[in-house]
Amino acid sequence: MKVFQCNSCDYQSISNKYVCPKCLKGKLEELEVPSTGTVYSFTDIHVAPSEFADIAPYTVALVQLDEAKGKVTVRVNEPVQIGDKVELENVEKGAYLYKKI
């Protein structure tokens, strides 16, 4: 998995930006990080937007990536709890799909 880190401060993001939104002077450089992490928070979606209605109910989790400062929002296809270890299983329609390990 790739994240982008500012070359002037400690800011990290999963999306690239022209200039660092934190320090406003650094440029974001691509950094490879493990595709594993820990569930930081989660919620179960029962009433989904129309484009995701066919997969409801589903779980959305905020995952603290291992060896990275950033967190990523992911979909998990099984029940999770805060503190569970997860890893990237697939990317589907731009969404990160994680599974428990």
Automatic annotation (TrEMBL):
Residue ranges of every copy of the ChsH2 C-terminal OB-fold domain listed in the record: 32-89
The record ties this protein, via PANTHER family, to: BLR3430 PROTEIN
This protein is called Nucleic acid-binding protein
- What species does this protein belong to? Psychrobacillus lasiicapitis
